[in-house]
Design brief:
Blueprint lengths: L2 H4 L4 H12 L4 H7 L14 H13 L3 E3 L3 E3 L2 E4 L2 E3 L1 H12 L8 H14 L5 H24 L2 H27 L15
Antiparallel strand pairs: 1-4, 2-3
Amino acid sequence: MPRRRERWLSLAERLVLGLLSQQPAHGFKLAALLAPDGEVGMAWYVQKGEVYRSVQRLERLGLITAEDKERSRLGPPRAPLSAMAEGHKAARDWLSHPVAHPRDVRSELLVKLALLSRVGADPGYLLRAQRRQLSPVADRLAGQLRTATGFDRSLALCRYESVSATLRFIDALLAAAPAPRAETTHATAAR
């Protein structure tokens, strides 16, 4: 699949793909994991209807496949879903790259950390890459603070404090993590 199509996946679609790259599941199980009290939904909630729309789109893109339907005691027959080879690759690539914008830390970085935690993968590679991504942003904002006035200063200060807090958060996670082994651990996160 061309990489440009991967860029157009929504966060909900990436979450569904990330979960299916870790383990096959039915739509019902995905919806439970992404519910407000679900293992991943605690970080970023996805409505049940959006989960099923994501499944349909990922199937159309050839990133996941539905197996033959199985009977269920709990309702209509269910089709187990699983990631295809290109889906596994897309999930691995996404999980190993930092978020592009500081505003995406609350959503995208946290869900990446949740997905990595589910499989016991070391988040160190992602956290170090995220720190490298955000440090220059903090430096630029600090420079803007020196010259900004009025509301521009308020806006720069808000953004600077937000990025600085994120860097402290990343540093705290890195300090609590075991020493890095090889930088290849991120590649196994989306098996």
